[in-house]
TrEMBL record:
Organism: Flavobacterium supellecticarium
Reactions listed under catalytic activity: epoxyqueuosine(34) in tRNA + AH2 = queuosine(34) in tRNA + A + H2O
GO biological process, one term: tRNA queuosine(34) biosynthetic process
A GO molecular function held by the record: epoxyqueuosine reductase activity
Locations listed in the record: Cytoplasm
Keywords, comma-separated and alphabetical: 4Fe-4S, Cobalamin, Cobalt, Cytoplasm, Iron, Iron-sulfur, Metal-binding, Oxidoreductase, Queuosine biosynthesis, tRNA processing
Protein name: Epoxyqueuosine reductase
GO cellular component assignments: cytoplasm
Residues reported to bind cob(II)alamin: 61, 132, 153, 156, 167, 214, 239-240
NCBIfam families tied to this protein: tRNA epoxyqueuosine(34) reductase QueG (TIGR00276)
């Protein structure tokens, strides 16, 4: 006989699939014991660079019950963003996740729908939706939920689909069936470590955030340090190198999410087009895009750094 938590789990996973999520795994809410010393060590080594917000809410990052009263379950979800078509070769590069609409809004809507579905079908369930904008260690929870393992480049990897996907969660006060973590399949491969242009992967499974091209081109608001000049390989917003070289990403399949469909301008712009972009064009092209985070001035700064 199927018990309630089993029935609810099946309902949730079926609805997640219907909403277009790539995968859905569930883990028991609790304190992340293994991650606590790792996060502390990473912060003490100042690998967060100028990302001061990473030091905030240390306890909440490790304990979801501080984010949602009486939290019982973490429903981890992934959404594929691997594009069918890539940018013009020889142009300034933008990370593939930013080709379409800003994923925060796309996923938040889906999460709201899923939570509404849970409350409709199951009854009084309290929960909160998180998309990369709150103190939640999403990769750790996704790994606990069996959606993949954390690779040497610190991304979540899956044997079936690689790593070109977003991760999000619903934290709910509902008892569910829990999935088991999967095993690590990086083996002896060091492709990501060898390929990182700025040597940001300082050891297997350890990324110094303050050395990452994504950090320099998105998070850092000051001038980019001169010691990394010539190492960016034309990346002006984010970087996909450690994912592009990962053997598991040969299994990436193009996504089917209309809202993440690439913006034609991003794909077709040449270096000259980018160099001539005005504030007005930037606002028009990136109106609903994650690239907005770097602002027009930031993009120009990045381009100038690449040109110098």
């Amino acid at each position: 006989m199927i018990n309630n938590s089993e029935k609810y789990t099946q309902l949730i996973k079926t609805e997640a699939k219907r909403l277009g999520f790539l995968s859905c795994g569930i883990s028991r809410a609790g304190f992340l014991e293994e991650e606590a010393p790792r996060l502390e060590k990473w912060l003490n080594a100042q690998m967060n660079g100028k990302m001061g917000y990473m030091e905030n809410h240390f306890d909440k990052r490790l304990n979801p019950t501080l984010l949602v009263d009486d939290a019982k379950s973490i429903i981890s979800l992934t959404l594929n963003y691997y594009p069918e078509v890539k940018q013009n070769v020889g142009s300034y590069k933008i990370s593939k996740y930013a080709y379409g609409q800003d994923y925060h809004y796309v996923i938040k809507e889906k999460l709201k729908e899923l939570l509404f579905f849970i409350q409709n079908e199951i009854g009084e369930v309290s929960g909160r939706a998180f998309v990369d904008s709150a103190p939640v260690l999403d990769k750790a929870w996704a790994a606990k939920s069996g959606l993949g393992w954390i690779g040497k480049n610190s991304n979540l990897l899956s044997k079936q689909v690689g790593s070109f996907f977003f991760i999000a969660e619903l934290i709910v006060d509902l008892e569910l069936e829990y999935d088991n973590a999967t095993t690590d399949h990086c083996g002896k491969c060091t492709a990501c470590i060898d390929a990182c242009p700025t040597e940001a992967i300082v050891a297997p499974y350890v990324v110094d955030g303050s050395k990452c091209i994504s950090y320099f081109t998105i998070e850092l608001k000051e001038n980019i340090p001169s010691e990394v000049k010539g190492k960016f390989d034309d990346w002006m917003f984010g970087c996909d190198v450690c994912q592009d070289v990962c053997p598991w990403n040969r299994f990436s399949k193009p996504h089917q999410e209309p809202l993440l469909k690439p913006n034609e301008s991003i794909l077709s712009f040449s270096k000259k087009d980018w160099e001539e972009i005005t504030d007005e064009t930037f606002r028009k092209v990136f109106k609903d895009s994650a690239v907005k985070r770097t602002k027009y001035e930031g993009l120009i700064r990045n381009m100038n750094f690449l040109k110098e």
